[in-house]
Amino acid sequence: MALERIGRIGCGDCDDARQNTPVVLAILDDERIAVLDGFEPFVRVFDSDGDLQLFFGRKGEGPGELGQALPGGAYLPGLWLFGNELGGVTILDIFPFSLEVFDGEGSFVTRTETGLSDAVPTAQAYDAATRSYYRISFSPLQDDSRRISRCRFSAIDQADCDDFADPVPFLQQEGMPGASLGSLALAAGPDGSLVVANVGSYEIWVLSDQGEVVMRTGRDLPFPEKSAEESDSERQAWARLGRPNRELDPNRLHIASYGLQVDGDGRIWVLTERYDEDNSVFDVFAPDGTYLAEVAIDAVVRRTSTGITPFVARGSLLAAAAQRPDGDNEVWVYRIHAPVAPIE
To answer: How many alpha carbons lie under 13 Å from residue 40 in its C-beta half-sphere?
Structure first.
């Protein structure tokens, strides 16, 4: 398994953005890359070489406007971004939890209400082939914390949302009963299936279109250790909160937040927490659950907030948000090449 870097999208192209701008990424049907700015309501669409093709968006909370003002002066343009059958993009807003639909020219088409609560998802996934959006959300004021929801919709029709699966069985792991919902990652397969991963135990399940478990895999590995710098930073953060003696976990989890994707051939890509300042590491599994390979690339940006997508995979492309030495973010585009023989 290998990744060949074929394009670069730099923040020099993001003239209205700040430094260190988080981004939400999507790969469209024609291999263009859509980038939603993490601070400002702008969508930019690039070809796979990194050349700008389309630019649109405006701030506001009405139909055709992107985002919501948050407490403290922050602004969130949208949670999720994906291509639609109009050749354009659809942006998922939080308040209300709705879909802003734009055509291939960037013109507003419609706002589609989902009927889901406004709770921010702890994990989410979208499959363009079956037009299925999945999420796990948590709201302390609503009974949203014990289900994986699925919405199916076209670009112009009302979303049809229902309960898809119970996340609790996937959260149970030896020694950690009742783990938090934030310890699951989701990815949608091109056939309507859903991949669920426990980021702590490194167990992975594939659920059918009906929500039934059809495959289980994973890896039995020791937890990756935090660096001294990470431990010191965490200790200082707790000290600022008045808890200087809090016991710290010396290890990272196995899988990064939002670190799960499925490519066009059904291979499962896992962004692991085995990384250093120069490299990030993917584990790749075949559709039948066979572990294929470990793939390292230059460091991607680790997700630290809602407004960032560390990487996306679709068809034969993978796009990752990367960190430049000067602190700015870029998006690097890779071509996925055929896998090597499975590792025994």
So the answer is: 14
For 15-72, write each residue's pLDDT tens digit.
444 445 668 899 998 899 999 887 778 899 998 888 889 999 888 888 888 877 777 7
Give tens-digit pLDDT for 240-251. 888 888 888 899
Place 113 in a pLDDT band, splitting at 50, 70 and 90.
Answer: confident
SS3 per residue for the chain: CEEEEEEEEEHHHCCCCCCCCCEEEEECCCCCEEEEECCCCCEEEECCCCCEEEEECCECCCCCCECEECHHHCEECCCEEEECCCCCEEEEECCCCEEEEECCCCCEEEEEECCCCCCCEEEEEEECCCCEEEEEECCCCCCCCCCEEEEECCCCCCCEEEEEECCHHHHCCCCCCCCCHHHEEEEECCCCCEEEEECCCCEEEEECCCCCEEEEEECCCCCCECCHHHHHHHHHHHHHCCCCCCCCCCECCCEEEEEEEECCCCCEEEEECCCCCCEEEEEEECCCCCEEEEEEEECECCCCCCCCCCEEEECCEEEEEEECCCCCEEEEEEEEECCCCCCC
- Tokens 């149970």, residue? 172
Round to whole Å and give the CA distance between 316 and 264: 6
Domain ranges of the chain: 2-216+321-337, 220-253
Q: Of 3-12, 13-22, 135-144, 267-276, which one has max mean pLDDT? A: 267-276
| Cα gap 110→101, rounded to integer Å | 5
Q: Which CATH number fits the domain 2-216+321-337, given the four candidates 2.30.110, 2.120.10, 3.40.50, 2.60.40?
A: 2.120.10
